[in-house]
Structure formats: C-alpha cells, structure tokens
Design goal:
Helix content: over 70%
Largest sheet: none
Shape: globular
Distance between the termini: 43 Å
Strand content: under 5%
Number of strands: 0
Length: 148
C-alpha cells in the first residue's frame, strides 16, 4: 500500500471517531456543559456530508468534458444544501434521517457514475465508512425515540 493510500484510508477511518464518541456519549447519558452529544453528532455529520459532496464537485469539474458533469455538479450542491438544512432544523429525528439518507444517496451516485473512475479501494472504503456512519445515525435515531 502506498503512502498516500494509507493517509486517505487513515483519515477516512479516523473520521468515524466523532460519530462514535457522540453516539457513546448520548447512549451513556454523558452531557458536558459545553458539549451536547446530539448537536455534536448532527453538526459533524452535516460537515462531513458537505465535505464528501465537495469531493464529488471536484471530480465532476475534472470531468468537464463528460455529459454528466452538470448533473454531478447539481447533485453535489444539493447534498451540501441538505446537510445545511439538517443543521438548521431544530428537529433531531428529521435531521438524522436527512443526513443518513444523504450518505446513502451520495454513495449510490458515486458507485453508479462510472465516469468518475474511482479507485476500487476507495469505493470499498466509502462503502464501509457509509455503512458504519448510517448505523450510528440509526443508533442516534433509536436513542432519540426510545432512550432520550
């Protein structure tokens, strides 16, 4: 494995830590005066969804001759706006649902858009990261519905 691949994989998996920490805090009832676990989770999720959709934007720009570039650019912006909307809402259940659906939808677009020529290792990692992130979103949803 080359150095750059180790870096992006390490950063990808490390990016799950705030999700895991906030979920654990919520489930064990740990609230700090300066940190609300649910808000930390939702705000971090919105930032990460925007970040991932920004990578779609960058790849679409690099494909400026592709017939699907315009569609990818619009989709990229829609995911960033959805993430922002989820952050603005004062409805945690709706926000968590929007964000989880956003991650799954963005992954589906990336897997379908063959012209992006994504590295198979990257796609495999994105699948694993998305499944863990969405599972954590579901745990937060269950906590909101039944535990919080």
């Amino acid at each position: 494995m080359e150095r750059n691949e180790r870096i992006w994989q390490g950063l990808g998996y490390a990016g799950l830590l705030p999700f895991i920490i906030a979920t654990t805090m919520a489930w064990v009832g740990l609230q700090l005066t300066w940190l609300n676990a649910e808000f930390a989770f939702i705000s971090y999720s919105a930032v990460i969804l925007s970040f991932i959709s920004g990578t779609l934007w960058g790849r679409a720009i690099a494909l400026s001759t592709s017939s699907t570039t315009g569609r990818l650019l619009i989709q990229s912006n829609l995911f960033s706006i959805l993430a922002w909307l989820a952050l603005l809402l004062n409805q945690q259940l709706i926000s968590l649902t929007i964000l989880a659906v956003g991650y799954l939808s963005l992954l589906a677009i990336e897997r379908k858009a063959k012209e992006l020529c994504l590295n198979q290792d990257y796609i495999s990692m994105r699948l694993r990261l998305t499944l863990v992130a969405v599972t954590l979103h579901l745990l937060m949803l269950f906590h909101q519905l039944f535990g919080g």
